[in-house]
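Chain A, query sequence.
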Amino acid sequence: MPKITKKTRHIAVGISAVIAVVLIVFGYITVGVTSALDDFVFFALLAMISPLAFLNYIDYRWRKAIDEHLPDLFRSIVQAQETGMTLPKALEEASKRDYGPLTSELKRMTVQISWGASFEEALLAFGDRVGTVLTQRTVPMIIEASRSGGHVEKVFDPMGKFIQTTLLLEKERKTQTKPYIAIIYVALLVFLFTIVLLFKTFFTSVEGVPMLVTPTTSPDDLARTFLHMTLVQSFFGGLVSGKMGEGSVYAGLKHSLIMMILGYVALRVFL
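Chain A, predicted structure.
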């Protein structure tokens, strides 16, 4: 999967915002301020959230693949150093192997070095392009190891083990937070079940005649209110899920999208 640049994100946000505004304006012109306008607003929200959630997921997979291949790269560098290769030559040889998306970045580094850039300049550019937490931590260490000379493999070997341990701890953390994310989904399902149960047993009599009809309140108004509450709960619940599970609020957009669709379909079908 490719890296998602800031420019791509900005373009996606701009296009999504235009589509969302067009949907809301079209709905307002077509149906006015009625319950049917909620459908246009809902699909406008989907048009706004879906591209961001999709791009964020692609970028997350790319970053994850980069970090997961770092230990393999460092092991290769250690083996190359033990044969007497210099560090730039070891990276050049490593770029000929398959390290997923990391391979293209290594090849780009070797090209920059062949064009006259220093090893440190190419390495700093690599860290800026990738931008993951692990690469930002390891790039300065690699530069210092290169400056110090001597047995650089003594630095790369523990560094690779450190990254592997960090990845294992991150995987364990995600495993431990999955039950909490499931609780957020279950809370939404319980909320939806309660709403449907109230409408089927309390807000409507056995004969089907509304029991709560006042000049200001009706079952349709209540249904709209609950729909709005469901969408708000789904959106922010998804953001919380992303923060707990992956450490990023933006990663929760996919959870928000799933729960919003689930809540919308449930209320439209059963109410």
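The chain has a mean pLDDT of 84. Residues 10 and 52 are 10 Å apart (CA to CA).
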